[in-house]
Write a structure and sequence with these properties.
The chain is α/β, with parallel strands linked by helices and about 270 residues long. Helices cover about 45% and strands about 20% of the residues. The protein has one domain: TIM Barrel, CATH 3.20.20.30. It has ten helices and nine strands. The protein is globular.
Length: about 270
């Protein structure tokens, strides 16, 4: 199972230092999310910047790391421009860019872009077909370095998983602890799906703020609990785990230290 993380920080310096330390610890992928409105939980350098621009910056800083967006909300984006950005990142990273896409989560953003939230699945399907065609053999510049374009993952709930199965694309679930993910993983593999990815909050320690663990489905606790949780994901068949560490700079640092010195060695990474 590959491990990645989001290099979130309170400002430019802390986000950059955190990215440096993630890579030094052996975390091989740097992930960012997507959205257009200000959100208190994803403000500034903790997820509030335009993701593909920031990923290009991170890729220049760490040319050996894989970078990915999880996930670009297709109903919010100009698909032709997204295809150009994805192809550019595919070239800049020499094939180490992953393009996760989703139907969207926040209804206010969808309405702002003139999309009925109830029809976001239809928009995803339509725009995904256009995106794949443009990356495969479209007229846009640049052409991707990777034949057919960078890998496209689908991220979301059960309807998105069904679409991923239909199109034989990788699927990324999110915010489920291992026991919660198990039925989804079983359905995915029973239907012939592969590979399976997951995105989860991870925090070392027992002082996760009240309500956050339930609301965000945080994998939290001492090193042994984190190691057990990550091992369970691997046993379920998760091939790629993307982590959001902590809830602020201090807790993110503490979590990375525990992962690097105790959890990853225990798991054989």
């Amino acid at each position: 199972m590959r491990l990645g993380a989001s290099p979130y920080g309170s400002d430019r310096a802390s986000a950059l230092a955190f990215a440096d330390d993630l890579v030094a610890a052996g975390i091989d992928s740097l992930w960012l999310g997507d959205g257009i409105f200000h959100r208190p939980d994803f403000a500034g350098w903790r997820g509030g910047l335009e993701s593909l621009t920031e990923l290009a910056w991170l890729a220049g800083r760490h040319p050996s790391a894989r970078v990915g967006i999880t996930a670009a909300v297709l109903p919010l984006r100009d698909v032709e421009w997204l295809a150009r950005e994805a192809a550019t990142l595919d070239n800049l990273t020499e094939g180490r860019f992953v393009l996760g896409v989703a139907a969207g989560f926040w209804a206010d953003e969808l309405r702002h872009r003139g999309v009925d939230p109830a029809r976001r699945g239809e928009e995803l399907r339509k725009r995904l077909a256009t995106l794949r065609a443009l990356l495969a053999d479209g007229p846009l510049s640049p052409a991707p370095l990777t034949p057919g374009g960078p890998p496209i993952w689908l991220a979301g709930g059960a309807p998105t998983m069904r679409l991923a199965l239909e199109l034989s694309l990788p699927y990324q679930a999110s915010r489920a602890l291992a026991d919660e993910l198990a039925p989804t993983a079983a359905r995915w593999f029973d239907a012939g799906g592969t590979p399976l990815a997951h995105r989860i909050y991870v925090e070392a320690g027992d002082d996760v703020p009240g309500g956050v663990q339930v609301a965000r489905h945080v994998l939290s606790g001492p090193a042994a609990a984190l190691a057990d949780g990550l091992a369970r994901y691997r046993e379920l068949g998760v091939g790629d785990c993307s982590m959001m560490l902590g809830h602020d700079d201090r807790s993110a640092r503490r979590t990375l230290d525990v992962l690097a010195t105790e959890v990853l060695p225990d798991l054989g990474w």
